[in-house]
Amino acid sequence: MDPWDWTLSTTIATIALAFTAIGWVITAIKDKKTAKTTEKRHNEQLATLKDQLQAERDSATALRAQAESSATAAKAAQEQVRQLQEANCIAMAANPPDKAPWGDAEWVKGELFRMRNEGNRNVIVTAVRASDPKLQGLFHFSESTPFECEPGDSIVYIALGTGQIGAPKTEIRWHWEGDGMERTTVRPNIKPKL
Question: pLDDT for 57-76, tens place per residue?
Fold first, then answer.
């Protein structure tokens, strides 16, 4: 065996080993740089995600506060509705919609009386007469019917009285404006004793 053969193969093996070691070192340096770049990118993404998480937490806190404010406003509105319903019940009890709007017959003078529409709706008066047909001769109403009687308006009529039977009671036939159901109200006509 030639000594140079041995030296040449050993030299080639040593050079190959050196290139392998250099390759490993270069790869390690590249991997280290890649790892640092990847770590840096990962840290940036992590920071972005933390910022997004904080923004979502702040948004959730704001939404909770808004929901609590809305709930408080809803409770206040419900209380207002309850109070309005209670007020409507009180108003309806004081002035039921089906209650006859006519007040008591008021003596004006002599044999003259009047009745007021004390309700809060317009009324259509279809007849004004004595409640007892036998006493119609003692009762006089000069307006033609039907006519509209607004809240606060009066019906004025004459009810003649006798010492034995007094003045006849007044019968008013009427219906609410916009409602065709006729109703009848009867009121006594009483003169004050002077």
Answer: 999 999 999 999 999 999 99
Cα(102)–Cα(91) distance, integer angstroms:
17
d(C-alpha 135, C-alpha 59), whole Å = 84
DSSP characters over 100-155:
--B---EEEETTEEEEEB-SSS-EEEEEEEESSGGGGGGEE--S-SSEEE-TT-EE
Residue at token pair 């004025």: 156
Of the chain, the percentage scoring pLDDT greater than 70 comes to 91
CA angle 55, 70, 59 (to 5 degrees): 0
Which residues contact residue 122 at a Cβ distance below 8 angstroms, ignoring those fewer than 6 apart? 148, 149, 150, 151, 176, 177
What's the whole-model pTM score? 0.51
Beta strands in 2-100 (DSSP E): none
Residue 113's φ and ψ, nearest 5 degrees, are -130, 165
**Class of residue 126 by CB neighbours under 10 A (exposed 0-12, middle 13-18, buried 19+):** middle
Residue 117's beta-bridge partner residues? 102
CA distance 30 to 37: 10
